[in-house]
Amino acid sequence: MKKAVFTSVLFLLFLFTGPCLAGEGFLLLSSTIGPIDSGIVSLLEDRFEQDTGIRVRHVGAGTGAALKIATKGNVDLVMVHAKSLEEKFIKDGYGTKRIPFMYNDFIIVGPAADPAGIRGMKKAAEALKALSSKNVLFISRGDKSGTHVAEMVIWEKAGIKPAGAWYKIYEKGSEGNVATLRYADQQKAYTFIDRATYLSLQKDIKLAVLVEGDEALLNFISLIPVNPQKFPQVNAKDAATFIAWLTSPGKGQLIVRDFGKDKYGSPLFFPNSDEWKSKR
User: Fold this and answer.
1) Can you tell me the distance from the alpha carbon of 256 to that of 193, in angstroms, rounded to the nearest whole number?
2) Most buried of the four, 117, 138, 200, 219, by CB within 10 Å?
3) Which of 50, 7, 56, 15 is closest to 239 using CA atoms?
4) Which fold has domain 3-96+226-247?
5) 80 with 146: CB under 8 angstroms?
6) In the chain, where are the structural domains located?
7) At residue 272, what are phi and psi to the nearest 5 degrees?
8) Rounded-to-integer distance, Cα 152 and Cα 157, Å
9) What is the DSSP letter of 226?
10) What would the pLDDT profile of 165-213 be if each residue is shown by its tens digit?
């Protein structure tokens, strides 16, 4: 069965069944959509299988939905990027711990003409405040994904609860950042997006990067093993092997470091495991 078809079948199983873990030698991963869309998740899975013989298959969803899937015991581990949601997932007993894996950053993009005049602003919160005061169209995923959660954190820093005709929730935001960015481009609107998604589409869209570089825009992606004490059927042994491989400076972290360089001239993600940082 082809990988994409297999993943679609998995998603239906997650929606309509209870625990469906596959056992030793096979792992199920629930991942936020951005890394999947970039291609890095499939690459990591394939390289890991080549090295170990352990097969990994994933289902993609916004971080909130990815974690919800895991609360049913349907996966062995998750790859997500919303600290507050991750911490609650662990506090509620569904996951064991947050493991640093990689990061990239969010950016604020909009029409090249920049009618709101935010180009080059150093603080993302100030840029969002300017957008709200100008009533220019802003598109939000609005789906409790990691991207949406990160966006709302910046609005909170700006002291604003965005609402009104200018602030539009994309009705298909749950389809991911690629779909959201394409829609924002069609609407000639501003939006909050991860850099990897923008780089993957930059030749197909007209929106420009207007605000970047604020430390508040860093996007940290974590791995969380599903708790085997709560779900005895999870493949904790192979999940631990996969996590060790992903966080290894000589294995997964090297793939993260180099991913995207050949196509975009710069990496889409940056290594962030404790093991990687200890070697620097």
Assistant:
1) 20
2) 138
3) 56
4) D-Maltodextrin-Binding Protein; domain 2 (3.40.190)
5) yes
6) 3-96+226-247, 105-217
7) -150, 15
8) 9
9) B
10) 999 999 998 899 999 999 999 999 999 999 999 999 999 999 999 999 9
**Domains 3-96+226-247 and 105-217 agree in fold:** yes
Token readout for 83 is 């600290």
- Cα distance between the two ends of the chain: 41
Residue given tokens 């924002």 in the structure block: 184
CA 199 to the chain's CA centroid: 15
Amino acid at 177: N
Instruction: Spell out the CATH class of 105-217.
Output: alpha beta
Distances (CA, A) of 112 to 65, 80, 99, 109, 138: 33, 31, 38, 9, 14
In eight-state DSSP terms, residue 234 is S
* 8 A C-beta contact, residue 233 and residue 73: yes
Q: What is the pLDDT of residue 24?
A: 77
